[in-house]
Design a protein that fits this description.
There is one protein chain. This protein is mainly α and 149 residues long. It has a domain of 29 residues. The protein is 52% helix and 11% strand. α2 runs antiparallel to α3. 5% of the residues are buried.
Amino acid sequence: MSSTLKNLEVFANEGLRTLLLAERTVTNEEFQTWVAKYQEATTSLVDREKKIEDVQDQIEQGLKLVGATAIEDKLQDEVGETIGFIKDAGVKVWVLTGDKVETAINIAFSCNLITNAYNQIIIDGNDIDKVDRGIQNAKLKVLEIKKYF
């Protein structure tokens, strides 16, 4: 596990897309029960996304790590130039991602979304308290940067 996590970090730092592979045996009865719940969730008229996520979480339990893989995430032609034109036109561009921070930064550099001349403010958290602290720290950093202009 620790070896795989180290490899994932190396892959992400190289700007690669990572994927963990895991498995578990599911009985036919368990699968049929799950499929019925999943079909019900996908046809729900209320809170569909939440219900689908909950049902998916039920099947993704007790998994055994099999390995990990990574691929290069190539941008479409002219993405960098297009983003450059948009920024040159005065449009403010933000990056909001669910990717690993390192991967998001590498992709942002590769498509000219950010350069070394930019001040990066990273808010990284998986619960409201961490995100709130990150926002408060970001505000302080922005105020500090503004002092110089």
